[in-house]
Specification:
- The structure holds 2 protein chains of 2 kinds.
- The termini of chain A are far apart.
- By secondary structure, chain A is an all-alpha fold.
- The longest helix of chain A is centred in the last third of the chain and has 25 residues.
- Chain A is 74% helix and 0% strand.
- By secondary structure, chain B is mainly alpha-helical.
- Chain B folds into 2 domains: 50 residues, no CATH class; 76 residues.
- Helix content of chain B is 76%, strand content 0%.
- In chain B, α1 packs across α2 and α2 crosses α3.
- The longest helix of chain B has 75 residues.
- Chain B starts with a helix and ends with a helix.
- Classes of the chains: A mainly alpha, B mainly alpha.
- The interface between A and B is large, with 42 and 30 residues.
């Protein structure tokens, strides 16, 4: 497979890989590195790539595993210190008012979720994967996926309701 | 879309039984400015999801043209092998020649030494006569 061919195969879903990585690793730099790593890994086995019937699902699974490994590894110990692209809770009132900006709120709520729910929510609500695709990716039973998804969505709702009724959380 | 329907889908959404299409309807509904007040709280959620999908991976992927690597490796190996055989043969040849030369030189030297030895022996025979003469001379001297 030629380089351009490979890029054409990869292009439609490389953003999805990146977003999944970012969901898990939070830091933009970490997510970029992870995505690059995955793409290079894919490239290194591009001869066998035609054998996989669904390259995208394969790449997504790779990304998931890679990021989870990364989180588990010791390097991830200082990961929280690395990322700078989200506002921390310790900002001034002015900043908090700005953080009223729903985006950073949602970001923070999503970050609090367990990894599994994070991933499922990402796959379903952001990337709109079908349930059977998610089952395959997550290596989970359909009912388990539904339960986890429902739980994740309800947690988000709860957090939002809290914020909604108290004004500034 | 009427509000009742949205509420119904929303309920299904939280039970995770809504289809992808229904969820798309929800996102479309919440993306508009006017949302029913009691549903206002869900707006950030769906807007966030729509927005999160916009994020792009911008870092270029440094793909090396690794494909030709092995091909060139075999070419290099072939070249090295050819050189090896060529120069190796030449080396063997010169070594063989040298040895032959050395052997020839050895034989020649041996022959020369043999000749020398032969002549030397003949020489000592003659020197024996000289000794006789010397003795005789000594005798004469001693007598005087």
């Amino acid at each position: 497979m030629k380089q351009t061919e490979f890029l054409n195969v990869v292009l439609p879903f490389q953003d999805k890989l990146y977003r999944l990585a970012k969901r898990l690793l939070v830091s933009r730099e970490e997510a970029e590195d992870a995505t690059q790593e995955i793409l290079l890994k894919l490239w290194s086995k591009n001869e066998s790539m035609s054998k996989y019937k669904n390259v995208e699902a394969f790449a997504m699974t790779m990304t998931k595993n890679f990021c989870l490994d990364r989180l588990k590894s010791k390097q991830a110990g200082n990961l929280k210190l690395v990322h700078s692209n989200y506002t921390d809770g310790n900002t001034s009132l002015q900043k908090q008012l700005e953080a009223e900006d729903s985006v950073s709120w949602m970001e923070r709520i999503m970050e609090e979720l367990p990894e599994q729910q994070k991933m499922i929510l990402q796959l379903r609500d952001v990337e709109q994967y079908e349930f059977d695709e998610i089952c395959e990716l997550m290596d989970m039973k359909p009912t388990a996926v539904r339960v986890a998804l429902s739980r994740a969505r309800k947690t988000v709702r709860e957090e939002l309701t809290k914020k909604h009724s108290y004004g500034i959380g | 879309m009427e509000l009742g329907n949205i509420e119904k889908i929303l309920e299904k959404y939280f039970e995770a039984t809504a289809t992808v299409d229904e969820e798309r309807t929800l996102r479309a509904y919440f993306s508009q400015d006017e949302v029913a007040p009691h549903l206002e709280q869900y707006k950030p959620m769906f807007n966030y999801f729509s927005m999160a999908k916009e994020e792009k991976y911008t870092k270029p992927v440094p793909l090396k043209p690794r494909v030709n690597y092995y091909k060139w490796l075999s070419v290099a190996a072939a070249v090295v092998l050819a050189f090896g055989i060529y120069f190796g043969n030449q080396y063997q040849e010169t070594k063989r020649l040298e040895q032959a030369k050395a052997e020839y030189a050895y034989e020649e030297t041996k022959k020369a030494f043999d000749l020398l030895a032969e002549n030397f022996n003949r020489g000592t025979e003659k020197v024996a006569y000289l000794n006789e003469f010397e003795e005789a001379k000594q005798k004469i001297y001693n007598n005087n």
